[in-house]
Amino acid sequence: MTQQKLTGTERGWWIVSLENQVWLPQGVLPSGTANQWLLQGHMARPIGEWQGETVWLIRHRMTSNMSSPRLIADRDAKLFQMVGRGVQLAEFYRSHRYCGYCGHEMQHSQYEWACLCSHCEERYYPQIAPSIIVGIRRDDHILLAQHQRHRNGIHTVLAGFVEVGETLEEAVHREVMEESGIKIRNLRYVASQPWPFPNSLMTGFLADYDSGEINHDPVELVSADWYRYDDLPLIPGPDTIARRLIEETVALCRQQ
Ligand SMILES: [Zn+2]
Predict the structure, then answer these.
(1) In a domain, 61, yes or no
(2) CB-proximal residues (5 Å) to ion ligand 1
(3) If you placed Cys at 109, which of 43, 114, 183, 207 could pair as Cys (CB 3.0 to 4.6 Å)?
(4) Dist. CA 231 → ligand 1 center (Å)
(5) Do 243 and 134 reside in the same domain of the chain?
(6) Rounded CA separation 244/228 (Å)
(7) Is position 106 within any domain?
(8) Per the annotation, where are the binding residues for substrate?
(9) Is residue 111 part of a domain?
């Protein structure tokens, strides 16, 4: 957890991040020794391990090759998780320089990812926003939608943020009704994935169609429709929870 000044001989993976961007020279995360990448003299903090090597966070903006972590979202899931942690921690420390209650300058905890106010003793942790994502099956069809926010031709399952005072299950039923106008049943949990855009934790579910006709929300969605499992449009890349939910739904469709 402790920050240290790099001498140059430290080894590992280097997450250089500021303002939700990460340094990806040649489109990849740099690895090797600090001086190999001219990182000596920077303050760095170990934030985990990947492939047996330390993952370091340096809160800094390089003059070039600063990119969105989306660039590596469909590569190794564990690496993406580490980069997401780094980008979110960099943003957390940047947005928590002063205490929200009393306005005094804060310090970083040495023992956990937290900021401490020595004046009023408040303690702040990185914000994590729970969200839901759900694969819905109707016989041998799956519900896929195109989102207004990502006009890249990709069709994916429905998703949305959990509201304050709401269970995950209630959030799934509400989001599905709001975005598509249908009712679902047989809701079951599958898996979760941290999703750093900007600070979400996606909880993945499968469900079956119950009733209603699709009537998509034009504010959120360009389109929503049923697709037969063996005739799907462009779907999200591997190593994403959306892809996994689609594949598990397709497997269920096949058994029909
Ligand atoms: Zn305070």
Answers:
(1) yes
(2) 99, 101-102, 104, 117, 119-120, 122
(3) 114
(4) 57
(5) yes
(6) 17
(7) no
(8) 70, 112, 125, 193-200, 242
(9) no
* In contact, 138 and 115? CB cutoff 8 Å: no
- Of the three residues 96, 113, 146, the one that is the final residue of a domain is 96
My answer on whether omega of the bond before 198 falls inside 30° of 0, hence cis, is yes
Of 96, 116, 137, the residue at which a domain comes to its end is 96
pLDDT of residue 76: 83
Mean pLDDT, the chain, rounded, equals 95
For ligand 1, the distance from its centroid to the CA atom of residue 89, given in whole angstroms, is 20
- pLDDT tops 70 at residue 174: yes
In a domain, 120, yes or no: no
Ligand 1 centroid to 57 CA: how many Å? Answer: 26
Q: What percent of the chain shows pLDDT beyond 90?
A: 88
Instruction: Report the separation in Å between the CA atom of 107 and the middle of ligand 1, taken as the mean of its atom positions.
Output: 11
Same domain, 156 and 49: no
Binding residues for Zn(2+): 99, 102, 117, 120
In whole angstroms, what separates CA 175 from the centre of its chain?
19
CATH code, 37: 3.90.79.20
Instruction: Check whether residue 157 and residue 231 sit in a common domain.
Output: yes
Domain that holds residue 56: 4-96
Res 138: pLDDT = 97
pTM for this model (two decimals): 0.88
- How far is residue 204's CA from residue 206's CA, in Å, rounded to a whole number? 7
Count of the separate structural domains present in the chain: 2
Ligand 1 centroid to 118 CA: how many Å? 7
pLDDT over threshold 70, residue 1: no
Binding residues for a divalent metal cation: 159, 175, 179, 220
- At 42-61, the pLDDT tens digits run 999 999 999 999 999 999 99
pLDDT higher than threshold 90 for residue 25 = yes
- Ligand 1 center–CA 119 separation, angstroms: 5
Asked whether residue 137 falls in the same domain as residue 250, the answer is yes
The 10s digit of each residue's pLDDT in 116-171 is 999 999 999 999 999 999 999 999 999 999 998 877 889 999 999 999 999 999 99
